[in-house]
Description:
The chain folds into two domains: 3-150, Rossmann fold, CATH 3.40.50.300; 157-399, no CATH class. It has helices spanning 7-18, 49-60, 82-91, 108-118, 155-161, 172-187, 192-202, 215-234, 239-253, 262-269, 273-285, 313-319, 325-337; strands spanning 38-43, 68-71, 96-100, 123-129, 146-150, 289-292, 307-310, 343-344, 351-353, 357-362, 377-381, 391-393. Helices cover 39% and strands 13% of the residues. Helix 7 (192-202) crosses helix 12 and helix 8 crosses helix 12.
Amino acid sequence: MEQIELQPLFDTYHRKLAKVSLRFKRYLYSQINWKARIISIKGARGVGKTTMLLQNILESYQDVDKTLYASLDDLWFATHSLMDLVDWAYRHGIMRLYLDEVHRYDGWSTMLKNIYDGFPDMSIVYTSSSLLVMDNAKVDMSRRQTPYTLYGLSFREYLELEDIYHCEALSIERVLSGHVKEAMQIVGKIKVAPLFEDYLEHGYYPFYLESLEDFPSRLRETVTVVIDSDLPAVEKVTFETLQKVKKLLMIISEHVPFEPNMSELWRQLSTDNELGLRMLYALDKAQALGLLTAKAKNYKSLTKPEKIFLGNTNLMHVLCPIVDKGNERETFFLSQLKVNHDVAYPKNGDFLLDGKHLFEVGGKGKTFDQIADVPDSYIAVDDTEVGHGNRIPLWLFGFLY
């Protein structure tokens, strides 16, 4: 294969790279072992996976043509194979490839295994939909790769992206034991309340920066692409099932927080329990929903969720007919805590964190009545700048990553 055949890929690569800035990097960037041979970065559509790949190229290569970025949903791959690209790159001394959207390429797992085994000097960084579960791959890549998952912007990252406030992420221990000091430092420099409201409405997905006016329609379009394009690329689903997935998402959007009556829900969807649970968990993996279960979620053994939320508050503002304040608070809390912690549905209270910290989430008037005398219990309080005791400002949980 001659280099002229690769020109469309190089053109796209150079155009994308020219628009990338190193000013702001996502929380996950510094956690990745960029020296690993195969790096997998999963995440919801629109959270910034592609930008991270291109930033690493800019940081790692003085001559950016010593490597190559390609999205595997590019039309170029309609008439060329990934192995064509790898062969050419290897013969021209390119020992690292950055591949986007690998789940859109048929037989991607077999191809990556062949590259790993057949080109021992070659390394690959690739992104995929958060829908992808490695156990479902035809070839087991779990022993060969270093996997990571990227979530949307935290409230802390949103403030940094807006160049309003910069600080390191806080550990949960630091928030629980030192929240008064941490909150006072922050509110002494910025007005948190209006910024927090902006974040809840549009701050989870970095692409809001491109056009705030078009953000709602862009986000709706993103959700549609996830269901119509990403889901069929990962799971064997019929057109009828895809329509049911959309209906399921809209039913839940109209009733969140949704405490499901499964038989009634399946009746509305004209489906059975097995397929219904598969659809629910697919939307959870896609980060469109947040399923709260009594025990840790297991995608191999699907169990009835106790409570269902949308994946983040931005989705609420786009999909819900009316945004309920109480649900918005709980959705925010879950979206921030699930990134680095196990969050379960408790017998008392709203959330059980890592099997030991019990939380109620509410407004200024929220009391400890529901979790009275429970050790290690806290209230995440909205509309509060600085808390006291075991009453912690809700917005501060947006500084955990």
